[in-house]
Design goal:
The chain is of the alpha/beta class. It has two domains: about 120 residues, Alpha-Beta Complex (Aldehyde Oxidoreductase, domain 3); about 150 residues, TIM Barrel (Alpha-Beta Barrel). The chain is about 45% helix and about 20% strand. The chain has twelve helices and 13 strands. The strands form three sheets. A seven-stranded parallel beta sheet has the order 7-6-12-11-10-9-8. Strands 3-5-1-13 form a four-stranded antiparallel beta sheet, with helices on one face. Strands 2-4 form a two-stranded antiparallel ribbon. The longest helix has about 30 residues. The model has no long low-confidence stretch (mean pLDDT about 95).
Length: about 280
């Protein structure tokens, strides 16, 4: 796990355990008490976040043994155990809520992604997330999307070029962009590798004449997406975005669009219900 993700875990634990203090556990539970615990699903779900769960417990107590019982991307049913845990009771109790918070949220992302992917797959349409992620959790949420069978076009502003509507507004519109590209030494590569967002079929026509090979159709209705696909899908990679969700993704996928990006994958999903159960009879 990379350093920035470990820092997120540290911050999450710090807001729950100032300097490692849990006043209830420290008062009631002997530090010598050792036992077993496990995390089980309480509903149907696709799993993501198992490595994060391990790192949460390791941050509290490196001697706690955490064993995943499945892999990220696995489908589980109610009462299926996903993690087994052995170690000090006090350590397990201190890590419990933070570990569950990550697991429930990330599995919620993976589960919703898997639901959308299942609908879109027969049409050959890919499901991508956007940059509308929880601050600090982007890499973990993208991993969760991938666990559910989805992906993303770009994970940051520094990774790939994507010209958005506000870029065009600031420079004077898509026609002004065409003029700015004349004589630009980087234009050929950016036209081939980058992507431009368009808000109408007219802007799509202009973008294709300019030479863009990847185009994002922003807030197009399904019938407009179908028209765009019929015109240019053989030569241009087309993605649809804006207002796409579980209730209408089939209509978009049926247009033959290559990919759809769905903001709700990371900003509006329901968490999955998991519980940590304990067994101290081994003592």
């Amino acid at each position: 796990m990379i350093t920035e993700q470990l820092e997120i875990i540290r911050l999450a634990l710090e807001e729950d355990l100032a300097s490692g203090v849990d006043v209830t556990t420290d008062w009631l539970v002997e530090t010598s008490l050792v036992g077993e615990a496990w995390i089980e699903a309480r509903e149907n779900a696709y799993i993501s976040g198992l490595n994060t769960v391990k790192e949460v417990f390791a941050a509290i107590d490196p001697e706690v043994v955490v064993t995943p019982l499945c892999e990220d991307g696995a489908k589980v049913r109610p009462l299926n155990r996903v993690v087994s845990i052995f170690g000090k009771a006090s350590s397990i109790l201190k890590a419990e809520r933070t570990a569950l918070n990550f697991l429930t949220h990330l599995s919620g992302v993976a589960t919703r992604t898997a639901e959308l992917v299942e609908i879109a797959r027969p049409y050959g349409t890919k499901v991508w997330c956007t940059r509308k992620t929880t601050p600090g959790l982007r890499r973990l949420e993208i991993e969760a999307v991938r666990a559910g069978g989805g992906d993303t076009y770009r994970d940051s502003l520094y990774s790939k070029i994507l010209i958005k509507d506000n870029h065009l507004s600031i420079i004077g519109g898509i026609e002004s962009l065409a003029k700015r590209l004349e004589g630009d030494l980087d234009a050929e590569m950016n036209l081939r590798e980058g992507k431009i967002e368009v808000a109408s079929l007219y802007e799509l026509d202009v973008a294709v004449r300019m030479g863009w090979k990847k185009v994002l159709l922003d807030n197009f209705a399904p019938e407009q997406v179908r028209e765009a696909v019929e015109r240019y899908a053989k030569d241009v990679s087309l993605e649809a975005s804006g207002g796409i969700h579980l209730g209408n993704i089939r209509e978009y996928a049926a247009t033959g669009i290559e990919a759809v990006s769905v903001g709700e994958l990371t900003h509006s999903v329901d968490s999955i219900d998991f519980a940590l159960e304990v067994d101290w009879s081994v003592n």
